[in-house]
Amino acid sequence: MIPRESILEALSRYDESDIRIATICSHSSLQIFHGARLEGFGTIGISLRRNKPYYESFPKASPEIILEVESYQDILKRDFQERLISENALIIPHGSFVEYVGGKNILEYFRVPMFGNRLTLYWEGDRSRQRRWLEEAGVKTPRQYRHPSEIDRLVIVKLHGAKGGAGYFKASSPKEFNEKLKELRSKGLIDPEAEVAIEEFIPGVRYYPHLFISPLGDPNLPELSYGRMELLGIDRRLEVIDEIYRGLPEIIEDYLDYTVTGNIPVVIREKFIVDILGIAARVASASRRLFNPGLIGPFCLEMVYHPKKGFTVFEVSARIVAGTNLYPMGSPYSTYYYDEPMSMGRRIAREVKNALKLGRLKDLIY
Ligand code: AMP
Question: What's the CATH fold of domain 127-140+203-364?
């Protein structure tokens, strides 16, 4: 793992008056570039040649410079990294950045300063470590099953390496689990070697709150051990399975598909904001205990509300999530923190700007 000191050493050579916000042209990059431009930063997009004209076509969100790559793996090449460093690039890692470059590759080979704490890649990238983190936070999580023979209630079976949520399935007994797995394998729908995670299926209403923690600010919630927390929006993912009533169960491949296809804006019953912020603060405080300096910047909790059990967290995404694309000009919640439109992309750029003013940029980078 590249030590933080060596990333900070690269950062120390940056011209702080000419920082550029950089990311791969995908996922939430238009929002990131748009926000960076509003805050007065230069921007760099990393794009496949075929995508470039499309990213150039948005007058308010296209990046100032586009660096073309043949494949996203080119980003790891020494020359390419040096080019980014010479442009004073601060990388904003979004979901596709991590997926295309690879979490492990970023930890081992990517020397360009990144916004946030890259140790989160290590902690969220592995289900059992992520579980330890959520347990440390003391939040409710779905029960995990080590072996299919233990299945005693409705479970959701998640496949490692499945694209998004494709190929996930439900089962209520060891017998049903084995039958469904066999069927999927015989149809060639899953890799026979794919590792399987079995988790209690939590019925209820899903919420995906978008949070931001600023280590530059003082704790503003009782459960916080550091930083200032903001709730900047909420969405619900529109997954293929959500449209099951439209006839999809006829096709088994689709019936088993939890892949995200879009996002729907959500406002939550106001009294639940207390629960969400409390849980988010505990997850952040636990992150600092486990991997100092802990979460920095945007993250998302994937939660289910059950009328009897309250909120269960089934996943943390420790970076900007695509659901924030709903709110390029702010959300029903950002309004309560800012007098101006504040997207998550802009909030990241604002944090960089604030840190530069305080001479604390290094506190946001690893
Ligand atoms: P994930 O790959 O963990 O983000 O899960 C993809 C989707 O599967 C989620 O957005 C939920 O719709 C569903 N899901 C995941 N875990 C659970 C669970 N424990 N109970 C119910 N639904 C789940």
Answer: D-amino Acid Aminotransferase; Chain A, domain 1 (3.30.470)
